[in-house]
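Researcher: I'd like a candidate sequence for this fold, 317 residues long. If you have to choose between options at a position, lean toward the conservative one.
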């Protein structure tokens, strides 16, 4: 059975690789297609919304998947001013790719409405969120009944043992829209969280990047170009061997959950303190007795993860 997904995203080079991974696992007509991508929904995050939408369109053209609609979403978080991350991703969000501007038009339905319409009309849809959770919170406000219609929500966000990446304690996606994140995490939606504790173990080392370039395809070369741009930040700032490939962990979890391990625990988000805004308070040891609400991952088989990425991306043009 193929798994139906919506990808909510703010590309971002790592979002781009996640989207290409999903396209590689959902080739139309392939007898072994593992996923069906029902749509992409863009959100402001790494860069402003006009760029994240454009980047989604560019990626559908690169993968020759313009049959997948790109639905434009929230231009700003629910309550806070937008914080962006050009210092990591470059001014376009996907610097390192060499493509013309897309010509495919954006879909007529906006992101929140598309999410609601799809969930209310289609059983068993999984939401994959790779950016701030604004669109999902807006969809919940539009139609609260979607809560019971979501098969699973798998999100990249948060951190616990590893601390934060935008502040000492907060991870970027949660920090940008903590109110939206708190609404989603405390709703009854079955949720899996891929925090920095996992993604900081999924490092795009030079030899791993070379495997994409060696594919010799346009997609493989685009992935290598984007990751070469993206990983300079983590090498310079943290002395890491490469950039952490955060968002593809979400899609990889759907394809090979055995690559990951974690625990079902309680998670709440700090939404008021300036000092710790956007922190995911993960009750890993069960000390608070608050009801578990999220499966929080902690470990990854990084070599298996890169094997999966290279294999599925090798199926693209
Ligand atoms: C998350 O923030 C963005 O910079 C990445 O695309 C990822 O979704 C990592 O903190
Ligand atoms: Ca992202």
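Model: Candidate sequence:
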């Amino acid at each position: 059975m193929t798994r139906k997904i919506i990808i909510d995203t703010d590309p971002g080079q790592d979002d781009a690789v996640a989207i290409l991974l999903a396209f590689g696992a959902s080739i139309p007509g392939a007898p072994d297609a593992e996923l069906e991508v029902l749509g992409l929904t863009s959100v402001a995050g790494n860069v402003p919304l006009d760029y994240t939408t454009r980047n989604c369109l560019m990626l559908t053209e690169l993968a020759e998947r313009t049959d997948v609609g790109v639905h434009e979403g929230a231009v700003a978080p629910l309550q806070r001013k937008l914080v962006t991350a050009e210092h990591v991703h470059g001014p376009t969000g996907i610097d390192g790719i060499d493509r013309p501007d897309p010509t495919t038009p954006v879909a007529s339905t906006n992101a929140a409405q598309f999410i609601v319409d799809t969930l209310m009309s289609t059983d068993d849809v999984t939401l994959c969120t790779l950016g701030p959770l604004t669109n999902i919170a807006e969809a919940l406000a539009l139609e609260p009944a979607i809560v019971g219609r979501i098969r699973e929500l798998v999100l990249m966000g948060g951190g616990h043992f590893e601390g934060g990446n935008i502040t000492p304690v907060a991870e970027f996606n949660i920090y940008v829209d903590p109110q939206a994140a708190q609404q989603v995490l405390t709703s009854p939606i079955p949720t899996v969280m891929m925090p920095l504790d996992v993604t900081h173990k999924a490092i795009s080392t030079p030899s791993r990047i070379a495997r994409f370039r060696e594919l010799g395809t346009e997609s493989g070369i685009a992935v290598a170009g984007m990751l070469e741009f993206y990983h300079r930040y983590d090498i310079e700032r943290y002395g890491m061997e490469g950039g952490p490939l955060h968002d593809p962990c979400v899609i990889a979890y759907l394809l090979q959950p055995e690559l990951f391990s974690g625990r079902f625990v309680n998670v709440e988000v700090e939404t008021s303190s300036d000092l710790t805004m956007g922190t995911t308070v993960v009750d890993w040891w069960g000390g608070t007795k608050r009801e578990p609400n999220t499966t929080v991952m902690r470990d990854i088989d990084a070599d298996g993860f890169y094997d999966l990425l290279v294999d599925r991306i090798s199926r693209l043009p």
